[in-house]
Write a structure and sequence with these properties.
2 copies of one chain form a homodimer.
Chain A lengths: L1 E6 L8 H16 L4 E6 L9 H8 L9 H18 L3 E5 L9 H10 L16 E7 L17 H11 L3 E7 L14 H24 L8
Parallel strand pairs in A: 1-2, 1-3, 3-4, 4-5
């Protein structure tokens, strides 16, 4: 048994998404104490900005004519795809950044998507249990001033669920900047409730992915 | 007078978005033959994957304690912000990639957004005329199988228009993979119409941004 965990927060020491991810991971490890956890920390070790382009153009280039950079990019795509394919369950912690998708996560996804097993036609991840933790500094609910400004979660669901076919549960915590940004102090109570709910959801989803056994398709 | 042009396509030689950008630029140059064009090619020269994180953490670090990497990131943020602030009009060509935002564009935006003039509280770009060219390989219209799968354009509009306050016109071309992907051959006629319309919109928007004069705010 093994869990793959990806973290995208650029501020690990104070990361709300990593803290929720820790809860999910604890539930997994408590159910499977001997399980390995494979980690991909996109803040400590971001995917190079040129990797995706090199992997894509390598696909149009006979192997003998590929540059070293193209070969390295294809090898990295294989490695990050291996990490997904070989795991029994997946955990992603990905904050909303600047109303959009984490640049580090998109860069990682684009590269993984070039590998045949995790490409548009790959089926290696179908049905694999996964938890997506996402956190939003503000509040984006209906009726709030920023309603509609979260352009990240829908895309994350799209690619994890609809494209890769993962069996995804989403743990979301809003208002993580309450207590950090004094302008939001009035929302302390609601933020505390949202935090408690997210922590409970993280526990539940950790137990769920730990309980599921999926046979990986031999892709 | 000067035009800032940013290109995000990773395949410059066959890029539909760059071709439309060329039309916009031609209209600009024809109206302002002596105008400079400042270029930022994110495929040829992508923003390093570590720059944003370093610029953000530099903001929490006294200048004397900053690392060289932090200083370089702040300097690059200043440069890319300068390019925007100093231009009289802006042109962005940004394809949809993997149902989401171009990784290169997001990485560039995040970094630019750390500079005070182009930050959440900066007002240096308000009212500046801009054209956003975006292209979609498939068709994402209402009623098509991929309705709702374009998670890029709404975020691009959000940050260019709502966050930075640019006076944005959007030139969009769908079905750019018709003629490339044989499975889409049946859509040749509709794709040709969409291409012609996009080219006409590119000409119009190029003329519009060329005609506008904006006084830059002294940010």
């Amino acid at each position: 048994m093994s869990l793959f965990r990806l973290d995208a927060s650029i501020l690990p020491a104070t990361s709300s998404s990593r803290a929720l991810g820790d809860i999910v991971e604890q539930e997994w490890t408590s159910a499977h104490p001997d399980s390995a956890v494979t980690r991909r920390d996109l803040a400590a070790d971001p995917i190079p900005a040129t990797a995706w382009q090199n992997a894509v153009t390598a696909g149009f280039t006979p192997e003998a004519d590929q540059t070293d950079a193209q070969r390295e990019a294809v090898a990295l795509a294989t490695t990050i795809s291996d990490e997904l394919v070989n795991a029994d369950a997946l955990l992603f912690t990905v904050p909303l950044y600047n109303y959009g998708v984490s640049q580090h996560f998109k860069t990682w996804f684009d590269l993984a998507y070039t590998n045949p097993r995790t490409s548009p036609t790959g089926t290696a991840l179908q049905g694999k249990p996964a938890t997506l933790v996402t956190v939003l500094g503000g509040n984006y609910d209906e009726g709030t001033p920023k309603e509609g400004w979260n352009h990240s979660t829908a895309w994350l669901r799209r690619v994890l669920q609809d494209v890769w076919g993962l069996d995804v549960r989403v743990v979301e915590r809003q208002f993580t900047l309450v207590g950090v940004n004094p302008a939001l102090d009035a929302f302390a109570d609601v933020a505390a409730d949202l935090k408690a709910t997210a922590e409970e959801n993280a526990r539940t989803s950790g137990r769920e992915i730990a309980a599921l056994r999926t046979k990986q398709s031999a892709a």
